[in-house]
Amino acid sequence: xxxxxxxxxxxxxxxxxxxxxxxxxxxxxxxxxxxxxxxxxxxxxxxxxxxxxxxxxxxxxxxxxxxxxxxxxxxxxxxxxxxxxxxxxxxxxxxxxxxxxxxxxxxxxxxxxxxxxxxxxxxxxxxxxxxxxxxxxxxxxxxxxxxxxxxxxxxxxxxxxxxxxxxxxxxxxxxxxxxxxxxxxxxxxxxxxxxxxxxxxxxxxxxxxxxxxxxxxxxxxxxxxxxxxxxxxxxxxxxxxxxxxxxxxxxxxxxxxxxxxxxxxxxxxxxxxxxxxxxxxxxxxxxxxxxxxxxxxxxxxxxxxxxxxxxxxxxxxxxxxxxxxxxxxxxxxx
Amino acid sequence: xxxxxxxxxxxxxxxxxxxxxxxxxxxxxxxxxxxxxxxxxxxxxxxxxxxxxxxxxxxxxxxxxxxxxxxxxxxxxxxxxxxxxxxxxxxxxxxxxxxxxxxxxxxxxxxxxxxxxxxxxxxxxxxxxxxxxxxxxxxxxxxxxxxxxxxxxxxxxxxxxxxxxxxxxxxxxxxxx
Amino acid sequence: xxxxxxxxxxxxxxxxxxxxxxxxxxxxxxxxxxxxxxxxxxxxxxxxxxxxxxxxxxxxxxxxxxxxxxxxxxxxxxxxxxxxxxxxxxxxxxxxxxxxxxxxxxxxxxxxxxxxxxxxxxxxxxxxxxxxxxxxxxxxxxxxxxxxxxxxxxxxxxxxxxxxxxxxxxxxxxxxxxxxxxxxxxxxxxxxxxxxxxxxxxxxxxxxxxxxxxxxxxxxxxxxxxxxxxxxxxxxxxxxxxxxxxxxxxxxxxxxxxxxxxxxxxxxxxxxxxxxxxxxxxxxxxxxxxxxxxxxxxxxxxxxxxxxxxxxxxxxx
Amino acid sequence: xxxxxxxxxxxxxxxxxxxxxxxxxxxxxxxxxxxxxxxxxxxxxxxxxxxxxxxxxxxxxxxxxxxxxxxxxxxxxxxxxxxxxxxxxxxxxxxxxxxxxxxxxxxxxxxxxxxxxxxxxxxxxxxxxxxxxxxxxxxxxxxxxxxxxxxxxxxxxxxxxxxxxxxxxxxxxxxxxxxxxxxxxxxxxxxxxxxxxxxxxxxxxxxxxxxxxxxxxxxxxxxxxxxxxxxxxxxxxxxxxxxxxxxxxxxxxxxxxxxxxxxxxxxxxxxxxxxxxxxxxxxxxxxxxxxxxxxxxxxxxxxxxxxxxxxxxxxxxxxxxxxxxxxxxxxxxxxxxxxxxxxxxxxxxxxxxxxxxxxxxxxxxxxxxxxxxxxxxxxxxxxxxxxxxxxxxxxxxxxxxxxxxxxxxxxxxxxxxxxxxxxxxxxxxxxxxxxxxxxxxxxxxxxxxxxxxxxxxxxxxxxxxxxxxxxxxxxxxxxxxxxxxxxxxxxxxxxxxxxxxxxxxxxxxxxxxxxxxxxxxxxxxxxxxxxxxxxxxxxxxxxxxxxxxxxxxxxxxxxxxxxxxxxxxxxxxxxxxxxxxxxxxxxxxxxxxxxxxxxxxxxxxxxxxxxxxxxxxxxxxxxxxxxxxxxxxxxxxxxxxxxxxxxxxxxxxxxxxxxxxxxxx
Amino acid sequence: xxxxxxxxxxxxxxxxxxxxxxxxxxxxxxxxxxxxxxxxxxxxxxxxxxxxxxxxxxxxxxxxxxxxxxxxxxxxxxxxxxxxxxxxxxxxxxxxxxxxxxxxxxxxxxxxxxxxxxxxxxxxxxxxxxxxxxxxxxxxxxxxxxxxxxxxxxxxxxxxxxxxxxxxxxxxxxxxxxxxxxxxxxxxxxxxxxxxxxxxxxxxxxxxxxxxxxxxxxxxxxxxxxxxxxxxxxxxxxxxxxxxxxxxxxxxxxxxxxxxxxxxxxxxxxxxxxxxxxxxxxxxxxxxxxxxxxxxxxxxxxxxxxxxxxxxxx
Lengths: 334, 177, 317, 665, 314
What we know:
The complex is a heteropentamer of chains A (334), B (177), C (317), D (665) and E (314). Chain B has six helices and four strands. Chain B has helices spanning 23-32, 54-62, 83-100, 118-135, 140-146, 166-176, and strands at 14-19, 41-46, 67-72, 108-112. Chain B has a four-stranded parallel sheet, sandwiched between helices. The longest helix of chain B is centred in the middle third of the chain and has 18 residues, at 83-100. Residues 155-165 of chain B have low confidence and may be disordered. Helices cover 44% and strands 9% of the residues of chain C. Chain C has a four-stranded parallel sheet. A four-stranded parallel sheet of chain C has the order 6-5-7-8, with helices on both faces. In chain C, α1 links the parallel β1 and β2. Chain C is globular. Residues 1-6 of chain E have low confidence and may be disordered. Chain E has two domains: 9-171, no CATH class; 177-287, no CATH class. Chain E is of the alpha/beta class and 314 residues long. In chain E, strands 4-3-5-6-8 form a five-stranded mixed sheet. A two-stranded parallel ribbon of chain E has the order 1-9. The interface between D and E is medium-sized, with 23 and 23 residues. Chain B: This is Hydrogenase iron-sulfur subunit. Chain B: Keywords: Iron, Iron-sulfur, Metal-binding, Oxidoreductase. Chain B: Pfam families: FlpD. Chain D: It holds the Pfam family FAD_oxidored.
């Protein structure tokens, strides 16, 4: 049962959800950049640019407290975070390359260790994805098996139509529930023609072939070639919708402080630095190799998924112009 | 001399980073001379102002100081010859930086107090304490300490007091029609 | 900018004297610069710098006079060339003073209704010739070297003093004039009174002082064997040239007149009194002469102590 | 978890009157890491210290904080007590709740609150503190003395008499320095050479002194107690071991008209020469620049006439390396040559004085030589130009000194006195002569100095004119001196037969280069800088190097000798122990993280930081890092504040300690 | 004299200009690799996407023939030379393509003993400017797409390089946007300034791109990575972010060459160069220090004068 929602009603939906005391998150202009941030009104929604950071931070915040501790009368008192206070959340506006990331990450977060911080947030959230009609020469979602109209990860999926409205498809029960609760904002009908998608410059990748190549090329001059120019920052990982490494730090003093979990990146030289001083990934080529291996081999080995949505953020942001799509294409070509 | 028994509404936290040879000794002299000054100041002793890292000042503000004093030997009197000269440049630069990011420099005082200047120590400490007292608590860094990225406590930004009551929501629904 | 390719060019502040009693200085300066192909553009509408007396009477006035002249000069391209030592001193002093004293500067700027041109470079003719045009190039340009001419280079009080203001040369032991003379082919003599005062503007109020002081200078130059004296100041020129005969009348034989010898010993002497006339040249006159400028256009006729016999004797005319 | 003991002192009632010490002790007990706390009437008393020692044992304390008076008062006391109890003394600290609290505040509540805070943050300091061991440095008990003037001689003799070996290095062919040139000395007018030459001989004969003349310092390495000094022995062209000092070579040398430096160029010497008859050693050198043999290869007379065959034209410069534990720098001074402005120097010349062009304008040292019985005139005052006895002599003081506009602002200290002396010597020798002195002030702060000066003015008829000279010129055979008399308010001209200038005292040529080799600092005039103007006037900032004499600043002979003996005493203090013990508050480098930007080295006032190469097992250079020589480090910590990565850390004041204290605020 | 009169000022820099430099770089790089003057050349290669370029270390003649220079060659390549950081300089002499602003970094690194001039062959580029971020990359440089730092460039000429490619050309009438922004911030009331920076720093995600791309951030142990003691919280929270950026500005004071790479690479668009520029301005005013093209003995915060300003000290 395709539904239609006008742009105005989409914004009204946000207004209503805010009034319902839900946390509504969507692309919003913050200073000079568009970021996923809490929306206070429908007018905040900014859909003309891909946010600089992916929407993963909704489930996997940049930094979060996991416990606090204090020594009192010789004994250490530990206080946990009350996860039940996490709010009901609606994420509105992610394109498939962002909306698709929980569909990838859920696997690892509920694997051998259940990350209740992540999972609780996931449980309480509804994702309203929007098909992507923009894109530039860094985009390569099609190459990694996604598409501008991929519904994976979305609970409700909107497709922009030429008259400015959106056709809606409830992908999950959560999506259905959201529509059902606000039915008068939606209209029945086929609607206008959809806005066409943009062509992507990167060829379709044979992910199986790439994985095979990676299996056989743990040692390869390619890694050194890339590492020659990689400066080892974390920009690519931090803005990536799929990267999910984190570090845990106690901040404060030994007697009184907070244990915090925050984003980390495998490109950092200290990422695998052991307390002993030994560092198994002591040089940048090993670190960059790990990034590719993790995304296109290890994660697939474990969970049968590729740890990349092709959003192209890392290509745009890399300080030294490392182009993962180009690297994959080279491997693909053999 | 400061009459200490007056109770104030606000007692600022003042941290003093001092060198051991001149200012610490000057503060000792103020003590042996039984001079009186506000009790707000907490003194941290360093061998030399040259040892004092701008990070310490930053950290003191972060940890709740309302005012910071850095004090050492007069130029030419440094026990280590040139430590205070290096410190002077370092802090001149640091002041400019703090001012540029919007820190009120009235909360940060530098002084030369020699071992013979017990009276000057009292003056400097009293003046800074009273000035900061009139300015009130330093909000900037303390607020920052408690701020988070929105996603950390996602939901904190939602004001529960406005939790909907149905008539209002109903009205909103109706208006959209 | 490659040196040598670009033509040097200056703005020019002649000052009152150079349009009156020191006209020779002005015309010889213009003639010299023309001969050297150096541009010289007179500042339009300039007026008196206040000279040496004004600052004794009203400091603000004297500073404002100079400041206004400087701002007029700012309108003309090129560093400001000044020939008169007194004008040079006043202009430089004003710049120095106003740079040091902000409140004075503000007062002056109100008075002249505009900013004081404190950074307009002010250059004396001597430094332009010796440094900017350059001694080597000057020597190359000489057409008629002043061979055999023994010259006492006379600096006077103002050219180098006080040291922080003119910054022309060593304050008490300069050599720029001597260097210049050597470049022109003349022979600078070593003499004792090149830095002493000639009496300056006492020439009107207390001529007696001037006669005494200028006499000492003339005597010293004669004693050192000089044929003539070279000056860079119209006032010095006036005192040494116009009053030369008067001095001779007043003092007669040399050596009896050196001022106050309180712990005096016997004075030497014994040789025949030296009463030679000493022509007084402006630096630009001698330089222009050496550059081959026609002597008729250098104002030799309008001075009192006639230089022509000497120049003829040295075959320079 | 640490076990710290906190001991709160009442100091009689000095603390307890305003601070509730019991509460402070109680609060201290609740601080994490504190295992024991108590308060006591007098912690510094014997029972108090015993209490501390007992508590350390009973409660197995691993750190101690005494909250009492200023650490400047009793830190040593309690550290000793802690050490006696088996603790590392550096794990004992003091919280100053007296000078910084009870004595300066009246409100009991607030003072108590403050005392608690002070204790809290000092507990953090103890908790994060580390055991430190005193630094010991072995000491080589040999001293190097640079310079063989009166300063060097005095220092060398004192150290040598104390039984330590001394190496003395002198640049000139003979020791003696300027004092050997002087005629008579103020204020006693005793003959300078008569008191100087015996000391020179003592140096030569002293079994503990090795004398290297005609030698210079080439290189200095190492640090206090352990210097390695390379000495360059310039080729003398005469074998010292063979020469008997008979002097035949000098009398036979065909080239005899070389101006003698010792007589300020007013006497003559041959090309092979000793600077003066009483020279030590009495071995001649060949002045190769003026020797016909060296210039044209023809002559060789000296070699022919030398009985023992000591003359050696083939001699080369040689080098020796001396291990010494301490260095005394006594390189002395030179007199300002005042003609034109030296190239590139901030100092202006006095071209207007005609010095150097008018022969009868001389400096003070030349006058000394004229007045000296061993001088070029045999002690008669005769002027250089024509050898006539001058009847009017003008002395000018402060030529170059105290003349900011000429580039030197300091007072040369000795000129007032020696000019007074000169007028007397002149008056004694030329009875009908008249001396005039131009002066600014007469500075006579010394024992018997003012009496001496007054004698010159009142009894010896010198005419003192307060004012300066502007210009001098030759007129006939006279020098016209133009000056001012500011007391009379008039200009003055004097026709003098001779003018003597008291020119400024300046450091020796090359003083800066030597300082760079030694790693000591110098001021803008190149005078060497002492470590502290008041309290360390003899020590250099660089440990183990001491200053004596005019190389540090203008000085007269008694001051020079005093300082030389003081420097010697410092050397002997250093040599009194086999090992040097130092406070372990010094910086250390974390070589793993140091990246060798050497910002620390650039800010180190002690020159304690060196560059160290880190090599792998194959000997390949991995990187260069900073290394702190603990013997030299002064412990200021400027390096650590400068190091961006904090790869250098000052023991006793680590970032960890300081951050913990800030955290506890 | 009109200072602008004898400069070659134009309204656009056409691709041909960059092509000429490209040719010159290739020729030089090929030559020094052929005659084994160097073991490698750090330069730029074209990126996959139109109008992009990427740093590259080339070691063969074939690779060297592909080197380019275009307005997309934004990187300061000196970051690749320090041992502690990237250490492409493993053995032997290395060639490097350097713009004027990069040359300042090279000079600074020499001052700090991280590089030796004799280990480098510097192929200087007479650079008229490079692209800003998020601009149209058409191949032609104009007022519309030039980087903010290039608008006030004073080092178009790579003085001190071994060879220099290009002739002096620059865009005319560029507004000094950064200077204007500085003035705007300086004119704000103190509280507003604090709000301005708080807003920017709060956005920081601590990806460390600013640090990693900075030629002067070559510490092996960054203060902000240290946790015993922790001077700067490593978690990306507003407090730690503020401390981090202040500490970094302080550590760069007197060293920063003004290449503005930190600002360029910031994925969160924090105007970091303003901090560095403010420090540079202060050090110029107080100690007359300016980062230059030749190494100096000591930076302004590693030396002192006895009469330094102390008007702020009581």
